[in-house]
Amino acid sequence: MLKQYQFILPSSNIIMACHISGVYDVNRNLTLDNDNYDWVHDWATSIEAQGLHGVLFHNSFSNETCKEHENKHISFIKIDYDRQFNPNVYRYFLYRDFIHQHKNQIKNVFVTDVSDVVLVKNPFLDPFFVDNSTVIFCGDEDEILQNEWMQAHGDHLRSQMEDYAKFEKDFSKETLLNCGIIGGAMPIFIDFLNQLCSIHSKFNRNNQTAFTGDMGAFNFLVRTQFNHQVKHGAPVNTVFKQYENDRTDCWFRHK
Known about the structure:
alpha/beta, Spore Coat Polysaccharide Biosynthesis Protein SpsA, Chain A, two-stranded antiparallel ribbon, 34% helix
């Protein structure tokens, strides 16, 4: 899906995000306008402030915008958007393909939402990250899997996957994990991405519901295949939607 790029990464630790505009956003109930850097400004600035490297995939930033904001900490990669998938889903194929193309350059990686996630501190130096090289790190919410929103969100996958309803029952009281922040060391992370993309490719093409399926597929995969290898909550993320702007003990703030 991703073009072949001769791309030399300045760091073996990277944070990736994706911004696709001109497409109706079912979560925000609007269509993001093209070439508006405001949507990604805080994400990019937070990565630059920590001296890390961010790779931003996009479909509509102008050459002028990229030239103005690209620096040794932020790289832009223009992509063609495949409308078979919602933007929230398509991003994982981009990440997967990019990592496969640059697997010899990358050691550790996080992928995040771009408009409501900022980096607070460098995760790659934290002993909690370093000492857990076989772990998937992710965000979470102050909510359990069995909630009204996730029930609606899972309608499409439930109709396509024969074991999705069983997963919902088995893990109904577990913490709801949030795919707005996912990361880990390369070996486990690429295994995870390969499996996630396989789920979306098989079961989440042309999803016509009002929900993207990204949260459902993510929670399904983590809970059924990586449940003993997942770390979420502090120090990975602040409390979702609590806008804890003064907290400095977590790696990422998600609203």
